[in-house]
Amino acid sequence: MLTRMNCVLACSLLLTACATQPDYRPAEDGGYGYNETKITETNYQVEFKARGTDKGAAMNYALLRAGEVTLNNGYDWFVITHRSTSVDKETVYGTGYDYMAPGDMVTYCSVVRCYTRYYPRSAFHAGIHVGGRTDSDIQVSLDIKLGSGPQPDSKYSYDASEVVANLKPKTESDE
Predict the structure, then answer these.
(1) What residues pair up with 47 in beta bridges, in sequence order?
(2) Closest C-alpha to 143, from 56, 60, 40, 52
(3) Contacts of 37 (CB under 8 A, 6+ apart)
(4) For the chain, what is the radius of gyration of the CA atoms?
(5) Which residue from 64, 21, 73, 18 is spatially nearest to 43, judged by alpha carbons?
(6) pLDDT tens-digit profile of 27-60?
(7) Is the dihedral of CA 20, 23, 26, 27 positive or negative?
(8) Residue 85: exposure state from Cβ atoms within 10 A (0-12, 13-18, ≥19)
């Protein structure tokens, strides 16, 4: 009886530890989280992979990592030169650059041709799920160019310090 209770306790602790693992973390072995690849001295590709339906949160974490990469390399700002978002390995296009609009367009490609379908949005920004899959793999990829000095006047240009300050996950000690 005592052995069974110890097993139940150990399993409970293990499940609790897994449940408290933060969403924002380095990806290990192609898993969920962030990673970056240095392309040139001032060009990086930053990726964030998540599980769920919140494309906005995945984009924010990719932006956060881009800000951290910028600051870690001694630069002040970054410009997004290319962005792609895929849900379950299918590229998602919205009418806006920063976030998906009220509906999503998904492009399917085969060896012969590509076609695009429009899908109504399946979740509100408040995080209320109203249909569709709840277990999708979302991957955001950003190509960024790092810079110092005067920041370019562009909607794709971000102050790295502001991005990190505004998007860094809050911890219990922050509250």
Answers:
(1) 35, 141
(2) 40
(3) 44, 45
(4) 19
(5) 73
(6) 988 789 999 999 999 999 999 999 888 888 999 9
(7) positive
(8) buried
Write out the two tokens for 104: 């999503």
- Tens digits of residue pLDDT in 141-162: 999 999 999 999 999 999 999 9
Between helices 55-72 and 160-167, what is the axis angle to 10°? 130
The answer, yes or no, to whether residue 170 has pLDDT greater than 60, is yes
Q: Which amino acid is at 135?
A: D
Q: Count CA atoms closer than 13 A to 151's CA, side-chain side.
A: 17
User: Residues 138, 50: contact at Cβ < 8 Å?
Assistant: yes
| AA letter at 29 | D
CA dist list (Å): 78 to 39, 63, 162 = 14, 10, 11
Q: What are 64's two structure tokens?
A: 């956060």
